[in-house]
From TrEMBL:
Catalytic activity of the protein: a pyrimidine 2'-deoxyribonucleoside 5'-phosphate + H2O = a pyrimidine nucleobase + 2-deoxy-D-ribose 5-phosphate; 5-hydroxymethyl-dUMP + H2O = 5-hydroxymethyluracil + 2-deoxy-D-ribose 5-phosphate; a purine 2'-deoxyribonucleoside 5'-phosphate + H2O = a purine nucleobase + 2-deoxy-D-ribose 5-phosphate
Pfam families the record matches: Nuc_deoxyrib_tr (PF05014)
UniProt-annotated location(s): Cytoplasm; Nucleus
Family membership noted in the UniProt record: Belongs to the 2'-deoxynucleoside 5'-phosphate N-hydrolase 1 family.
An example Gene Ontology biological process: deoxyribonucleoside monophosphate catabolic process
Enzyme Commission no: 3.2.2.-
Name the record gives this protein: Putative 2'-deoxynucleoside 5'-phosphate N-hydrolase 1
Keywords attached to this entry: Cytoplasm, Glycosidase, Hydrolase, Nucleotide metabolism, Nucleus
Main location: cytoplasm
Gene Ontology CC terms, in alphabetical order: cytoplasm; nucleus
Gene3D superfamilies: 3.40.50.450
Organism whose genome encodes this protein: Mytilus galloprovincialis (Mediterranean mussel)
Gene Ontology MF, one: identical protein binding
Length: 142
């Protein structure tokens, strides 16, 4: 399978969902190579401590350029994830944003309003629904 997936989730804006990210990444592996598996690692900030912010940015942008899809968990607001989504749109990547409304948070209108049902998809979900969402999202190439 040659599909490459860039998974985006909050790192510096809060790591409360790191375990969830790891489980989502595990499921995404069924659909292709996840280039950013480190996002699900609870010690990602420690692992990147010897990297400059420029090195982190450049590495991540290289992965984003290489990817076919961006899948973003957007429940925890993050400037970095928003930046990655914007760059993915400019690179003409297909984007899937996952949001858990049951947390009581509100999704940015800039994300929700960008949905076009083809190249930019936003799904409200519970974790138990993720596999079904991924199957539907990647269906055209299975």
């Amino acid at each position: 399978m040659s599909r490459k997936i860039y998974f985006a989730g909050s790192i510096r804006a809060g790591r409360e969902d790191a375990d969830l990210y790891a489980r989502l990444i595990e499921q995404l592996r069924q659909y292709g190579k996840v280039l950013t598996e480190h996002v699900g690692n609870s010690s990602v900030e420690k692992e990147e401590k010897d990297m400059s912010e420029k090195e982190i940015h450049d590495r991540d942008m290289e992965w984003l350029n290489e990817s076919d899809y961006l899948v973003a968990e957007v429940t925890q607001p993050s400037l970095g994830v928003g930046y990655e989504i914007g760059r993915a749109i400019n690179l003409k990547k297909t984007v899937l944003c996952l949001f858990r409304p049951q947390t009581g948070k509100r999704l940015s209108a800039m994300i929700r309003g960008a949905e076009n049902e083809s190249t930019f998809i936003v799904k409200d979900y519970k974790e138990s629904e993720a596999q079904t969402i991924f199957k539907e999202f990647f269906k055209e190439e299975l």
